[in-house]
Design goal:
The protein has 156 residues and is an alpha+beta fold. 35% of the residues lie in helices and 25% in strands. Strand 2 and strand 3 form a beta hairpin.
Length: 156
């Protein structure tokens, strides 16, 4: 496992497309390889990616970024996406990806991890519970996209 560089954007994006296809939501993916490369660039990249490799081939990816909790008064890490190819899931690759992210984030001063899971993705929910994570029933995720987001910004 290793932190991905901008040169890994093609492999990262390919795995993200596999994730979307496995969830039957490929049509929702608007990002491309350049978007991923740009997000991984710079001294303070927008996101970090961790690649799991076997035999020189990427078999898993986790996309994450640092956050700050005003209530906790501490840094955290948000897991945006995680995907391990189906044939490689039984080897504990997903758990090792999460452990490496926790190790990395702890070194950055983080003390917690957050993520969201699709309500229909029962397998992922079970996986997260199995490794000791708990769901938060007192919060609800809200989103705004595209033109609606732009209109909101125009009101500022």
């Amino acid at each position: 496992m290793r932190i991905a560089t901008p040169d890994d954007a093609d492999a990262v994006h390919a795995l993200l497309l596999e994730l979307a296809e496995s969830m039957d939501v490929r049509d929702k993916v608007a990002s491309n390889n350049k978007d991923i490369r740009d997000a991984l660039l710079g001294a303070e990249p927008a996101v970090h990616a961790l690649l799991a490799e076997q035999g020189g081939m990427a078999i898993g990816v986790a996309i994450f970024f640092l956050t700050f909790s005003t209530w906790r008064g501490s840094n955290g890490v948000y897991l945006q996406d995680i995907y391990v190819r189906s044939g490689d899931r039984e080897a504990g690759t997903g758990k090792r990806l999460l452990a490496k992210i926790a190790e990395w984030a702890t070194a950055q001063g983080a003390d917690h991890m957050r993520l969201s899971v699709d309500t229909e993705n029962v397998a992922a929910q079970s996986f997260y519970r199995h490794i000791g994570m708990s769901s938060c029933d007192d919060e609800m995720l809200f989103q705004i996209f595209g033109r609606d987001f732009q209109v909101l910004g125009e009101k500022g």
